[in-house]
Structures are given as structure tokens and as C-alpha cells.
Amino acid sequence: MFRYLITTIIASVAIVGIYTQYQLYSENPWTRDGQVRAHIIQITPRVTGPVVNVNIDDNSRVKKGDLLFEIEPSLYKAALNNALAKQRQAQALLAKAINENNRATALEKRKLGSVSVLDLNNFENAVQTAKANLASAEALVEEAQLNVNFTKVFAPTDGFITNLNLREGAQVVANSPVVALIDENSFWIEGFFKETDLQGVIAGDKAIVTLMMNSDEPINAKVDSIGYGIAKSDGSTGNTLLPNVNPNFQWIRLAQRLPVKLTLENISDDVQLREGTTASIKIIKTTTL
């Protein structure tokens, strides 16, 4: 009889414990499927050419405005000098056209009919054409100057260089990314929660984030937003233009997982966030407080 009593007590305690943990989990959703995320800026040169100077190292920190690397500028400086020469030529032609137009206008004022109306119109049109040519030449100078400036590539924000493979002598191509820069000021946590766990969770709810690489330093956070949709796995069009439908068990309905974005608060100086690392997340619903 005593043995049955002990067994009953142990079973009751276990049931109560399981129920308590279930209630705690229901009120405060928890997941180990979280990641540290950040915006990754692809540093892309605006001009093509060989790299003559690399000012950064792999896994180094840079500040906004720091020089990252330089491209051989000789070709673009030559193009700038050529554009400047054409600009001076256009300025001279404009001055000539203005002088000829002024001379013809002055003659016509002194003696009516000394210059035909057609010639007066042609002189005026020549001035307008010269002005247009000068504006075009100035635009070419501006473009050439920009290309010279673009041979120096600067950091657009504070951040971390990672997976650097750029070396002096390498040929870079305009509009092709060559360096990855992780924006230092953009880190957030993304956790994936079952849809059944998100009932009552709203933006602004408090959360506790534990990084796997800093498990002894939990970080306070708050819910920023909850994803409004995920890609469907069934019904997408296959190679034969028929829908892809995966087999499943009819008696089991698996809950989908939705991404939850969290903003970190009061990060310790000892904690270095790294893109893609693992985090555990516990959300404390406001409605339970």
C-alpha cells in the first residue's frame, strides 16, 4: 500500500511539473532556432581597373569614410584631361559665336538692312549651339572627374570586413561586388516560432536572448515585428508545369514557423555580435504581466 502511495505521489508531482512547464511555455514562448542577423553591404566599385592599393585586412573593423582600396587612376585622369581640353575648346567656340552675333547685331542697329534676317538668325542659332556644346563638354568633365574620384573606394558605414579575397593587382569590374561589409549598427535577432506559440505576442513585448557563444550573458530584447508570411512548399510549379505537392500524414498537422524580429537592448561591451550565429529566445508576453 505504501509503495502505491509513493508511486502515486511521484506521478502526481511529475504531472504537476509537466503541466507547470507547459503553462510557462505557453505564456512565454521559447525557441532555440534563432540567429544573429545584420545588413551586409556589398562594396561595389563604380569603375573598372586593376587594384593598386588595399587598405583593409580580413575580419577588420572600419569606420565610415575609411579608404578601403584604390583602383589605378591613370586612364581616368587622362580621360579627365581630354574632357577639360574639349571644355576649353567649347568655351572658345562659344566666345567666337557670341562675338560674331554681337558684331552682326551692332551693324544691323547702325544701318538697317546691312545684315539679312537669315544671317541674324544663323548667328543667334550659332550662339545657342555653342552654349549646348559647352554644356555637353562640362557634363563630360563632371563624368570624368567622378570616374577619377571613384578610383578610391570608401566605407559607406561603420562595420566589419569579412571573407576578404581582394589583393593588389587584381582586376575589378564596375558594378561587380568585391568586398563584404557587415553594418555594425544594424544587428538584430531573428527567431522562428511555431504559429501556435505566437498567439498574444505583439510588437514591444520583452524578450530574453541567449547567444550560444555567450551563454552566460543573457541579453534583454524586445519584439520588433512578426513576419506576415512565409513561402509555401506545396503548390509551387515544377519543371513540368505541374504543382509540387509533398506527401504528408493526414492525422498530423504540423504548425508552420514564422520569423520574429527582435531588437537588442543594452549589449555588454564584452559581447561581440556575429552574423549568422545561433541564439535562444524567450518572449515574455505583455498580456501575462
From TrEMBL:
Coiled-coil stretches: 80-147
Q: Which residues form the p-hydroxybenzoic acid efflux pump subunit AaeA-like beta-barrel domain?
A: 186-283
Any one annotated GO CC term: membrane
Highest taxon, organism lineage = Bacteria
An example Pfam family from this entry, by short name, is Beta-barrel_AAEA
GO terms (molecular function) for this protein are: transmembrane transporter activity
Q: Which segments constitute the Multidrug resistance protein MdtA-like barrel-sandwich hybrid domain?
A: 40-180
Q: Which UniProt keywords apply?
A: Coiled coil, Membrane, Transmembrane, Transmembrane helix
Family in the record: Belongs to the membrane fusion protein (MFP) (TC 8.A.1) family.
PANTHER family per record: MULTIDRUG RESISTANCE PROTEIN MDTN (PTHR30367:SF1), P-HYDROXYBENZOIC ACID EFFLUX PUMP SUBUNIT AAEA-RELATED (PTHR30367)
What is the protein name stated in its UniProt record? HlyD family secretion protein
Q: Which organism is it from?
A: Shewanella holmiensis
